[in-house]
Amino acid sequence: MTNRRNPAPPTATLDINCDCKEYVVDYLTKSFPVRLMAVFTDENGNARSEPMSDENGAPVLCRSALAARDGMIEQLCALPPIATALDAIIERFGVDQVAEVTGRTRRLIVGHDGRQVLQSRSPRANVAETRDFMDGTKRILVFSDAGGTGRSYHADLTAKNQMRRVHFLLEPGWRADAAIQGLGRTNRTNQASAPLFRPVTTDVRGERRFISTIARRLDSLGALTRGQRQTGGQNLFDPADNLESTYAKEALHRWFGLLFAGKLEAVTLSRFEELSGLRVEGPDGAMVDDLPTIQRWLNRILALPIALQNGIFDEFLGLVEARIDAARQAGTLDIGVETIAVEHFEVLTDTLLRTDALSGATTHLLELEIARALKPLRLERLEELYGFSGARKQLLRNTRSGRIGLLVPARSLLTDEGMRVARFELVRPLKHGHITADQLAESNWETADPTEFQRLWQAEVDDAASNHKRERLHLATGLLLPVWDKLPSDYVRVSRISARDGRSLLGREVPLHCVPELCQALGLEDEHVFSAEQIVDAVLGTGRPMQIKSREALTLKRSLVNGSQRLELAGWSASRLDWYKAHGCFTEIIRYQTRLFVPTTNAVAVLARLAGQI
């Protein structure tokens, strides 16, 4: 079999395929194991093997291995050529739309007549291509490591092209520092807008190993910038992408426990040890204490067959995401600094919490009202991202609120006992989140008609496009280190409020129910007067009880009664029971005890009357 290409006559049409078959065929020819091996037992009783040779010293080859190698090469050469990502992009959009900044001196392009043309590129071609992109003449830029050195492609305020960059990361490779350097080319100071980063991977789960390395390096870079994690990562990756985080290490330890107990579906203990070469079970039949590190485990997983690799990663990521979801719900997930882009904000109150005796630096608690422009997901974009057809996709409408949503299958979570928790992604016009199968069964979501679904979705988009979302929040700003231990430990979120007029505030968010505790811990009088609407939203949203300033020391809390969440009052006087009922409360005897509830339908009005606000 020959792999030589004869040069085409000068007058013939070029038909050149720039693929990597030659390298793969050469690798198979030289490295495919075709030699017979002799198995023997050494002095310690271990089975070993060595290459066989005949009486003349020539290697003995295996006929079946030779046939397998030749058949594989034949099938490989019969496959249609696969273009590289760079050539495919240029062929799809054309050289008039794509600026190429790489180290190539020649390239094959398709001319206007549809024929291949071999084009030479001078060293100054990169300069011209960069200028075309920054001027907006070409809308797409493709650059490599060689083309990214010493150049910037961000939406500079002095450039003609100030459109927001969408940076796709292709083939990140093993070098995380090179990938990070490339990401920094589109994110600079003096830019009109920050870029959107989009890492691209295939359905091979092992590729997450490379993305994880970049995510870990970005987190480490952010840790060097005084805890401002976003400086390094720019929220490019989800916490689940870092497979070397604390959550991932805890999940791997539990994965080994489930593997040892035989509770995993993807692989058994014996097969995993045979294929990976890692030891989980010791000579005494117990699990070894010195389990493999996550870096070593990830590297061994990459050598497994694709189907097995994907199955193992699915179960492992189910454990990781279960831990991250639990930390996110508890408010302890550290994602660094989160930038909240708002139209404008207004400082309602400014409470001085502390003044440093040496430096004079102050710590403040600000009550802000922010207005955010709603950015709904358009119906066309929804269909482009998810599509409406599919065996497991459902068009839903909430019979209680009238809202609609698209239900999309998501990765199942895995509990520490090895039980799978079926989960779905619920996509709505203004937000999306996850919902378990049990939560879906207990909710008010029902199947919707496709025509009605599209009409209601478009109605929500039109309504949201013309409105702003107004909300209030409390932000601790200034010198925070001396009062860091006084801030709520179960809610860690550092935010930068950035307005369109250039104003910004940086601090740590304080939930509404934690404001009285913070003031009390610092020896201050709580002068904040919360509205009934704020109290109701805080109690229903967080489940934390809150005090109501009234004639009596009333506490509003959230209680689960008969499968539904209710607002319950505590601390009320039995002698004034009729007075509470006259102001809108209702009672119910549960286990021979009278309990007082506030109706959720008009809770704001009832609480306002109880507090004497109306």
UniProtKB/TrEMBL annotation:
InterPro entries (UniProt xref): SBNO_Helicase_C_dom, SNO
Pfam families recorded: Helicase_C_4
Q: Which residues form the Strawberry notch helicase C domain?
A: 85-339
Its recorded name reads: Strawberry notch C-terminal domain-containing protein
Where does this protein come from, organism-wise? Tsuneonella flava
